[in-house]
Write a structure and sequence with these properties.
alpha/beta, Rossmann fold, eight-stranded mixed sheet, 8 strands, binds adenosine-5'-triphosphate, binds magnesium ion
Length: 171
């Protein structure tokens, strides 16, 4: 895993395998606090769900994340509950109302949303956007963490410290 700090508080992380993406999620899980909100964007198969799976491991959830097949929303019980949403099959913003997302957001939990663009405006004005892209190698993924708001810049800083430490201890 390679990590680079960019202008504007952005953090770019290169993952070279599914295991590395999962490990990154696990580290991220250890940093999360109630109310933290993440939007995960990027192509099909770019690693969004795998990252969430790592987060559930980091939160010591009683169950680990897989792609939520039928339900758009899945809640993982753990030290901090995690809501994992995959809104890929949402037809449009008009279908959001029945999901009662505002109510969900009132819970002491963390939230990670795949394909969440229709929900972005209605949920919060501060959040992290993680943009997933594929690299040149088959198992290379590039994760760009774009923080919106102070809390999310802080998460990037914590993440950077944690990853730097990993790199220097050669773990
Ligand atoms: N470095 C990597 N990080 C994450 N996944 C990787 C990596 N290299 C290969 N893969 C593979 O890519 C796939 C990622 O699947 P995943 O379900 O996480 O994607 P996704 O972004 O959630 O897709 P979707 O939009 O369909 O939900 C898995 O099959 C995984 O094994
Ligand atoms: Mg997915």
């Amino acid at each position: 895993m390679r990590v680079k700090k960019e202008a504007g508080g952005n953090l770019v992380i290169w993952s070279e395998s599914p295991a590395e993406t999962e490990e990154l999620g696990k580290i991220l899980g250890g940093i999360l606090l109630p109310g933290d909100l993440f939007f995960l964007s990027g192509d099909l198969g770019s690693g969004k769900t795998l990252l969430v799976r790592g987060v559930t491991l980091g939160l010591a959830s009683t169950e680990t994340a897989t792609s939520p097949t039928f339900a758009l929303i899945h809640r993982y019980e753990g030290e901090l509950p995690l809501y994992h949403l995959d809104l890929y099959r949402l037809a449009g913003a008009e279908d959001l109302a029945p999901l009662a997302l505002e109510e969900m957001m009132e819970e002491e939990a963390a939230f990670m949303i795949e394909w969440g663009d229709p929900a972005k405006e209605v949920l919060a004005d501060t959040y992290m956007e993680i943009e997933f892209t594929r690299g040149e190698q088959a198992e290379e993924r590039i994760l760009a963490f774009h923080p919106v708001g102070e809390r999310y810049r802080k998460i990037n800083h914590s993440l950077w410290l944690a990853l730097e430490k990993e790199q220097t201890t050669g773990k």
